[in-house]
Write a structure and sequence with these properties.
The protein is an alpha/beta fold. About 25% of the residues lie in helices and about 30% in strands. The chain folds into two domains: about 5-10 and about 385-500, Sandwich (Immunoglobulin-like), CATH 2.60.40; about 15-380, TIM Barrel, CATH 3.20.20.80. The relative contact order is 0.15.
Length: about 500
């Protein structure tokens, strides 16, 4: 059966916020130490950061990098990580049962972002922290007045404010694993008061409040409603977090998890809209999907490093071919929900549940999931277009009619190009696709790349890369319809140049 895909260049979902192409660095495992920071490495710059890693991050064109956590955030005193390094304390990190030497802190991270050409998304500690400590950090980072913490930043060598605009009000505060976890009312109150004070101090910032840690939390839904009742007028985004697993080896069900992701987004968006209506407010609270990825390989392998070590190499996922395809489907889901999802962070960036891996003192390489994110970040910007896909379906644990082909379409900011991102979930069947592009007077394919020809369990290493992009030529244009033969078990990007866009 042929898959029918219809795209109308005038049927637009919303502008795509560049911040959906963001990521995350937490003080967890080897994300920081021997990840982005390793002064003894041959590629290290004058500040101790690995340049080989930076050169792999740069092509991702990240809008923001979230920092310093994550679970680490709820026990972190930001004052431990500033000033002369020889004076900084070594602390036990209760989130990940490791030692934290505080050799990288706020200044080092923000200056690394400056050199990388990206912006930071900073979190304030609302576990052991207080609204006042949150404001103190904000003053240190963004303060312009001759006040204590702004002056301390100046004394530490950064005269100009960093101007960080995006801030998280804590992390996963509903989780019993969290340091100083809170009820919805407890968190709603501290988030509200922190938000008020922070915006009084710097009205230019935007704030993200904690939603449920994941969709299957017992309090999902009621948590969101209660938190919004407390702090709706003072926040700009509500967070979503979700990681997916394939513990039973059921690849068809695993590749359908993005359908669950779509449901999750729609449910939380409905809750925010209901609170806006209840208040009869003109203010919108959008969604920040600031942790999303796949996370199960390390846990299933059951090799747990010794506690209270540094760096403690935990949660180093070795991603495979199936993971790459699901990441492609998850990015498609974010694009199709561009009207409500304005921020999204692939969690994380280096070594810990990450697309980039390093060897201490050795090589760096990219994992399978790097490529769908890379191409979407490069070409999936502008406007999200409505895409209608009539594809053969299959039954699995997620649903009875999961489309074999998943897709998203974007119109570039200059309206000269459409990018299609297509995933063939079928392990064995090619998909003949007829793609109709309405309201185009003339078009031509300018690039087509694919990930295909590997098994579900194929993994990239420091020395081999069985999962990598290749040029794809199995397409033809006839009578205004683009015919594409998608390989079995594949991810494909097609860039289409628009010579003339018909007017509505």
């Amino acid at each position: 059966m042929t898959t029918q895909i219809r795209i109308d260049a005038q049927a637009r979902i919303a502008a795509i916020d560049d911040r959906i192409y963001s990521s995350f660095i937490e003080h967890m495992g080897r994300a920081v130490y021997t990840g982005i920071y390793e002064p003894e490495h041959e590629s290290a710059d004058a500040f101790g950061f690995r340049q080989d890693v930076m050169e792999m991050i740069r092509p991702l064109n990240l809008a923001n990098i979230r920092y310093p956590g994550g679970n680490f955030l709820s026990g972190y005193n930001w004052l431990d990580g500033i000033g002369p390094k020889e004076d900084r304390p070594v602390r036990p990190d209760l989130a990940w049962f490791a030692l934290e030497p505080n050799l990288v802190g706020t200044d080092e991270f923000l200056q690394w972002c400056e050199r990388l050409g990206t912006s930071a998304m900073l979190g304030v500690n609302l576990g052991t922290g207080t609204p006042q400590s949150a404001c103190d950090l904000l003053e240190y980072v963004n303060g312009t007045l001759p006040t204590q913490y702004a002056n301390l930043r100046r004394a530490n060598g950064h005269a100009k404010p960093y101007g960080v605009k995006l801030w998280c009000l804590g992390n996963e505060m509903d989780g019993p694993w969290q340091i100083c976890a809170k009820t919805a009312d407890e968190y709603g109150r501290i988030a509200c008061e922190s938000a008020k004070m922070m915006k009084w101090l710097d009205p230019s910032i935007e704030l993200v409040a904690c939603g449920s840690s994941y969709r299957t939390m017992p309090t999902f839904g009621t948590w969101e409603k209660t938190v919004l009742e407390h702090c709706y007028p003072y926040i700009d985004y509500l967070s979503l977090h979700q990681y997916y697993q394939n513990n039973d080896g059921d690849v068809p069900s695993f590749l359908a998890r993005s359908v669950e992701m779509d449901r999750f987004i729609r449910e939380v968006a409905d809750i925010t809209r209901a609170e806006k209506a209840r208040r009869d407010s003109d203010h919108d609270v959008f969604l920040s999907f600031d942790e999303w990825n796949i996370w199960y390989h390390f846990q299933s392998e059951g090799v747990i490093p010794e506690k209270w070590t540094f760096p403690r190499a935990i949660e180093e996922e070795r991603y495979d071919g199936a993971d790459a395809l699901l990441v492609g489907c998850m990015i498609n889901t974010l694009l199709r929900n561009a009207d409500v999802v304005k921020i999204a962070c692939l969690a994380q960036l280096v070594n810990t549940i990450a697309p980039i891996m390093t060897e201490p003192g050795g090589k760096a390489w990219v994992q399978t999931i790097y490529y769908p994110f890379l191409y979407a970040s490069r070409f999936g910007r502008g406007t999200s277009l409505n895409i209608l896909i009539d594809s053969p379906g299959y039954a699995c644990s997620v649903g009875d009619a999961i489309p074999s082909v998943d897709g998203a379409a974007t119109l570039s900011k200059d309206e000269n190009e459409i990018a299609l991102f297509l995933v063939n979930r079928s392990l064995t069947q090619e998909q003949d696709c007829e793609i109709s592009l309405a309201n185009l007077c003339a078009m031509r394919v300018i690039e087509c790349v694919t990930l295909c020809g590997f098994s579900a369990g194929s993994r990239n290493t420091a020395d081999t890369a069985p999962v990598h992009p290749a040029e794809f030529h199995h397409y033809a244009s006839r009578d205004g319809t683009l015919h594409v033969n998608l390989p079995a078990f594949s991810w494909t990007m097609i860039r289409i140049r628009i010579d003339t866009l018909a007017q509505p």
